[in-house]
Amino acid sequence: MEVTRLLKSLDVIAERGYEVECCLYNMDWFDGPIEADLERLAEFNREFGLITSLHNPLYELNIASLDAKIREVSMQRFERTQEIAQKVGARWIIFHTGFQPLIPTAYQLKWVEGFIEYFGSLAYSARDKGLLYLLENSWDHEPEYVEKILESFDEGVVDMCLDYAHVNIYSPYSLEDWSRRFTGRVRQLHLNNNYGDSDDHLPLDEGDIDYLEAFRLIEQYHPDSALVMEVDIELAERCFSFAEDCYRKLDGA
Length: 253
Fold this sequence. Notes:
CATH superfamily: Divalent-metal-dependent TIM barrel enzymes
Radius of gyration: 18 Å
Helix content: 40-55%
CATH topology: TIM Barrel
Largest sheet: 7 strands, parallel
CATH class: Alpha Beta
């Protein structure tokens, strides 16, 4: 949930007992006088423990850029996110690679190597602070480069957040291909639906993704992973009920 909306929804979240992911997308807020907001979130988390992860800022940031100034600003943003995570008491930070599959093929591997180099300093710094980065697939057409990045870090230093909706939009590979590829490294899954052309964050029962099959894959490959319903809070109960129905069908009830 985007941070300014989260701040307005704390009572509802506490009442319903939702664990939430706080998304730091609003850069006007991020760069503003936010100490009072951070203390409010920290106090809420001390009482309820429901803000389990933060989502890094992501727009126009690129730690593997060939432009040193862009790398510098990106690193500053991500280091600040670690400080916010510590203050709020979140344990996971969700990190989009930002890999752009439309860049020339000859540059793609160089980009990945640069990402591993610069991301490494963030990952080990986070580990020393008791935080864990979860690398999320976003525009990635295929799992190869995400896998290469993960293989460069031990489990518990960097793990994965697998987003089924992003796979449906951006990748020709199936959900099972992605699920199988990252068995044992997925700590969290992002769940919502779409029609394959836009990241609409629709409820699970509306869109192209067959979530009965998706939950079968989760049971097979990622049974211990946390499931995040990435939908408007008003749609959360609908998605929880749908998920429960799917699991009942899978159990043969």
